Amino acid sequence: MTARICPYCNEKMQRGYISAQNRLCWTPEGETDRGSTLWSKSPNSIVLAEYYLLAAAKVDADYCESCGKIIIDISG
Ligand SMILES: [Zn+2]
After folding, report:
1. What's the pLDDT at 19?
2. Cα of 24 from ligand 1 centre, angstroms
3. Alpha-helical segments (H) within the chain
4. Side-chain-facing half-sphere of 13: CA atoms under 13 Å
């Protein structure tokens, strides 16, 4: 797989991933990322990675060292 080029500075980005022991979500500013249960979420949240059975939540992410940006593709 070829490295992604940073759209900000056109340098090569480093491929990696972000993981957690629960769900990773992006939530719009001003909205809560919590619902009535541990597994509920705001309807406007975008799930970046879902906890699945015994594996940690994990999503591929490209990192640009020179401008300190991370880009994540939202799958499905
Ligand atoms: Zn960059």
Report:
1. 85
2. 23
3. none
4. 24
